[in-house]
Amino acid sequence: MTSVGNLQLSSDMASSLLPEMIMLLGLIAIVVIPNLGDAKFRIPLTSVRVPVLLGGSRFDLTNDPRMPNRISNITFAIAFISSLMLISEPSKELGGVLMADGFSRLFSTMFLGALLLVSIATTHRLPAKVNARIPEESDSEAVFDRKISVLINNRRQVDFYILLIMVGLGMSMMAMATNLFMLIVCIELASLSTYVLVAFHKEASSGGEAGAKYFIVGSVASAIGIYGMSLLYLWAGSLDLDILREKWQLMDGVDPFAAFGIGMMLVAFGFKVSAAPFHLAAPDAYSGAASQVSGLLATASKAMGFLALFRVLVMITVPDGSEALWMVTLGIFAILTMTWGNLAALTSENPKRMLAYSSVAHAGYMLAGIAVVGSGITGTNESSIILTAVTFHLVVLVLFKLGAFLVLTLLETEGSGHKMEHLHGLGRRDPLIAGSMFLFVLSLAGVPPLSGFLSKLLMINGIVSSSAGTGISSSEDILSWAESVDPMFWLAGAIVLNSALSLFYYLRVGLVMFFEEPVVDRPLKTAPSLRMAIFVCAILTVLCGIGPVSEWILDLVNGAIDSLMYE
Amino acid sequence: MGENKSEMGLLAYIIPFLAVVPALYVMGWESYEASILIVAVPFMTFPVILIVGQIYNGTEYWKDRLKEGGILALGALGVSLSASLWLVYDYVDALPNFDDQQSITQWLEWVSFDLLQSDYTLTSGSKVLGMGVWVDSITLMILFVATFLCFLICWFSLGYMNTDPINENRNHRFYGEFVLFALGMFGMVLADNFLWLFIFWEVMGLCSYLLIGFYYWKDSAAYASKKAFLTTRVGDVFLMIGLFILYDIYGSLEFSVIFHDPSLGGMVDSNKLFWALLMMFIGAVGKSAQFPLHVWLPDAMEGPTPVSALIHAATMVNAGLYLVARMVPFVDVGHHGVPGLEDLGLIVAYVGGITAFMAAAIAFVQNDIKKVLAYSTMSQLAYIFTGLGSALWFYNNDEHHAAVVVFGASMFHLFNHAMAKGMLFMASGSVIHEMHHAHDHLHQGGHDHDFDPQDMRNMGGLASKMPVTATAMMFGSMSIIGIPLIGGFWSKEGIIAETWLAALEHEPLMFGPAILVLLTAGMTGFYMSRMWFMTFAGEPKSEVVNHVHEETPWIKQPLLILTIVTAFGGFGFALLGATGYLSSAYDYSGHLELHESTLLSSIIAELEHAFLPEKMNLRVVGWITIFLSFIVGPIVAARIHGGNLAEGESSTPFVSWLVSLSSKFGKQDVSDLSQSELSVALQNRLYFDDLYEGILAKTVVPFSEFAAWFDKNVIDGIIKQIESKSVLGSVQVRSITTGSARDYILMATIGMLSIIALIWGINS
Q1: Which residue of A has its CA nearest to B130?
Q2: In a domain, A27, yes or no
Q3: Which residues of A touch B107 (CB under 8 A)?
Q4: What is the pTM (predicted TM-score) of this model?
C-alpha cells in the first residue's frame, strides 16, 4: 500500500497518461463551458468590476444544449487517438501501481473507441434541441408532454456525458493497474457510473428497475470480490501483482486464504463478464438501458472483466507447466455459461435480451480459452495464440456487438427496438442498415470471412492444437483416442456445438429482416452521425476479418499479449 | 449507310477506356503493375452492366447509345486488350530463365498466418492463397488470343445481338455474363498457381452455363446448359482431386514452388504424381470436350452464336489444353522432371486421336452449320491433345528436340485454331443472322416455324449475296483443313509428323493416334469443304436465300480483321519461329525473330522445312497429309455438294474461282448412302448421349432419390428434434431468470459456494 503514496507527477508521466489527462480536461470543460456567462465580480471597496465569466446570464454559444455532446465526442476522439499513438511506446511503470505498456494501452484504446461510438450514438438517442419552448397552458396534453421531455433532455445532457467520461477514466486507469487495490477502485469508478447510465432514462419504468437490480447484484458481487481480495492480503501481505505472483510461485500446497481469495474474486469478475450464474441481472439491465449503453456493457464493461481475469488468473496464478487450481472450475463454468447463454437466447423475443444472452455465450467461449491456458498443457506459443484470440475477440466485439446495439439504438429513436417484430421487414425499410445488422449477427455467429470468425478460428485452433495431440496418436479407432485425449479438447467441442446452436437465433434476425413484412412501412430516421457510426462498424467488421487491417490488428494484439506474458 | 455511320459514332464512348492504359504509361506505371487491370476492369464492369441494365432497361439512352451495355463491355475489354498488349510487348523478349522463374507481380495476399500449418507462428511469410501473375510464352500467346478475340467478338455482338428483336431488353444479361466470362479466362491464364487457375476455371464454367442457357425459355437451351454444366462438372471433380493429390505431394500449388523442382530431388513417388496428373487431365478432357466427356459441346450451340464463337471455340475450350501444357515441367526429365510417366503421354495422345477421328466422322453428316463447326472444334482440339500427348511422351523420354517441336506446334495450332474458329463462328453467325432476317422479311406476319436458318440444306449460292462472309469462311476453312501456306497448315503438319515419328522410331503404341490423326486430316478436308460448298456454292436451295443482304452493322469489321490474321498469321508467325518460341516456356529463351538473314532466305528455309524435311519418313507423312487434306477431301466434297451459282449471280474474285472450280469434278448422288446404318449412327452421334442417359437413369437417379429421402426424413428429422429439444431447454433455462434481484443474488451465492467447493475439493 505504501507505493500509492509515491505517486508523483512528472512531465514524463503526464505524457504516458495523456488520454487520462485529456479526459480529466474534458470533465472540467463539460462542467465549466456550459456555465460560462457574463457575471462580473466587483473588487471589494472599489467600483471596479472584473468579468469572471462564470455564472450570470450564459452566452448563447456555450449554453447550446448540444455542447456537452460535442465536448464529449471531441474528448473521446482525442483521447482515442492519443491512446492509439501510445500503443507502441515502451512500457513504463508509474508510481508503482500503474503500468503503461502495449497491453494496457491496447485495452484503453479499445475502451475509448467503444465510448467514442457510444457518445456519437447518444447524439440521437438523447437528442438536445436548440430552441426548446416552455410549455403553455393552452397546449394539448401530448404537446405539453413532448415539450417537457425536450426540456428534460436538454437539462440532463451534461449528466449523461459526465458519467460517460467517468466510465472512460475508470476503465482506462483500470487497464494500467498493477495493484489489486487500484484495480478494484478503478473498476468501481467505471461500474458505479454504468449503474447510473443503465437507469438514466428513469421516466421509463424498465430503466429504473433495471438500474436498481443491476446495482444491487453488482454491489453484492463487488463485496464478495473485495472480501476475497482482503483474504489475499491476509495471505500475502501485499496487493501488488508482482509480489502476489512471487508468493504464489513459492506457495507449498494450497493455502486456503489464497484459494478462497481467488475464488471469491472470480465471483466479482464473473459478474463483470456476465458468466453464468452471475449473469442473471445482465439481460434485465441490457433490455432496460438505452441500447447504446447496453452495447457499452456488452463490450467495454465485459472487456474490463476479462482484463481483470487476465491480471488475476493468468498473471498471478498460472504456474509453469502444471495445472492452475482454478482450471477445472473455470472450464465447467465456461461450458455452463456458453450453453446457458445460447439456450436462453434461442427463444428471446426481445432483440436486446437476445444480444444480452449472446453476450453471455461469448463470455463462455472466452472463459474456455482462459481455462485451457490454465490447464498447463499449452506451450508458450499456444497460450499466446489463445490469449491473442480472446483479446482480439474483445477488440472486434466493439465493432459488431456494439454495432448491433447501435442499430437497435437507431430503432429506439422511433420508440421501437425492444421486440423482435420491430426488426421485421427492416431490409425493405432500410437496406443498408439491415445489411449492416445482418453483417453484425453473422460476425457474432462466426461466419467467415468476418472478424468474429477469425477470433473463433484462432481460439479453437489454439485449443485443439494444444490438446488434440495429447491423445494416443497411434490408437486405431476414434473411441480409444477420444478417451485418451486431454479433457480440454472437449472445450473446443463445446464451443463448436454451441456455435451451431447459436446460428438458429442469429440467422433468425436475418430471416425476419429480409423475409417478413414490415409492421410499420416508413423509412428509418436519418440520424446521420449514428448511421455513420454503424457503417464504420460494419466496414471494420469486414476489414478486421480479412486482409491487411486484420493482420495489423492481430500483430498489435499479439505484441500486446507478448508484453503481458514476458514482462 | 448513314445509320451505320452513327452506329460507328458510338465508338467515341470507348475512347476514355482505351486511354486508360496509355495514361498509366505516361504516369510511369510498369506493365506488370497494369496487368491487374486485365482482370480488374472487367471485374468492376460486369456488375455495373447487370445492375444498371436491370434499372434502366428499355430506356432510349441505354438501348441506342450504350447498346444495352455492349459499349461498356467493349470498353472494358478494350482496357484488357491494351493492358495485355503492353504486357506482351514488354515480356515477349524478356522471358526469364525457367529455373528461377518467379511470378512477375503479386496482386493479393490472403491473411498470411498459416495456422493450419504446424509451426503456430502468427505471421509467417508463407501465403496460403496468394494471387499473382505468371508470364511465359504460353501465357502471353493465350492471353493475346483471349483478349483479342473477346474484344472482336464483343464488337461483333453489338451487331449480332442488338439487332435481333428476341434479345431486346435482355442484352445486358448477355454483356454482363460475357464480361464475367472474359475475366475468368484472363485470370486463369495469368494465375501463378493451380488454385487460382481452378477458381477462374470455375468462373468460366459458370458463365458457359449461363450463356448457353441465355434463351432459357427454350427447353432445348435449358437442357443444353444443364448438360454442359454437369458434364464439365464431372471433369472438375477429378481436377479437384488431382489438385488435392498435387498439394499433398508438394505442399503448395504455386507454380514457382512446384516447377522449381517437380521431382523434389528425385524423392517424388512417380505413381502418385501420375494419378494426380491423370485426374487433372480428366478435368481438361471435360473442359475441352474430348472423348468420353465430349457430349456437351454440340448441344452448347444452343447459346447465341457469339457465345459459341468465344467460349465454345476460341477460348474456354482451350483451358483444358492450357492445363495439359502446364504439366510439361512434371514430365520433362531434362529439367528435374519425374521419369516413368510415359503412360500419361500415351493416354493423352489416344484420347486426342480417338476424339479427332470420331468428331470428324460425326461432322460428315451434320446439316446444322454450327454443329459442323462444333464437331470441327472438338476434332481440332483433339489434334492439339494428340500433339501434347506426344510432347509429354517425348519429354518424359528425354527426346528433347522432338518434344520441343511438337509442343510448340501444338501451342501454335491452338493459336491458329482459335483465330480461325472464332472467325468461322462469327461468319456462320453472320449467315444465320441474315438468313433469319431475310426469312422474317419474306414471311412478314405469318411465321413459318419449320424454317431453320441454321440448316445448310436451306442455303446454297450465298457467295454472291454475302461476299465478305464467304471470303472469311473460305480462309477460315482453309486454315482448319491445313491447305498449304495458310494458317493451320504450319502447325498441324508438325503435330502429325512428330506423332508419326514417335510411332515409327520409338513406341509402336503411338501408331494408334498417329493413324487416326492422319485419317482425320483427310476427313477435315471433306467436312469443312462440304460446309462451305453447301452454304456458298451451287444454286439457292430455298427462296429465302434470294432475299439475303449483308448489311448488319458491326459484323464485317471483325471478320475482315480475322481473315487477314488467319490468311497470313500462320505463315508470318511460322517465319518468326513461333514453334520454337512457344515451347520456350519450358526450355530456352526463344525469341520471335527471323532465323535467316533476309526475309527471302527465311521464307525459302521455312518452306523447305515444311515440304522437304530432312527425315525421309517425315517427308512421306507430310506429303500424305497434304494429299489427303488438300486433294482427296475437298474434291470428294466438291463432287457431292459443289456447283456453279445460279444464272446471273456473281461473287468477288476471292471466292468465285473456288465456286467455279467446285463444279468441274462432276456430280455424285449420295442419297442412298445417307440411309446406311453407319450414317444413321453418325447422325445420332454414335449413341453416346443415349448411352450416358441410360447409365444415369439406372445409377444416379435412384441414388438421388434415396438421398432426397434420406435428407428429408433422417437429416431434417434429426435437426427438427434438436430444435424442439433446444427450444424446450431454452424455456426452462429462461424460467430461472425470474426478474427478482433476490433470486439473482441467491444464484450468485450458490455460484460462489460451488466455486469455493470446486477449488477446495479438487486441490486438497
Answers
A1: A547
A2: yes
A3: none
A4: 0.70
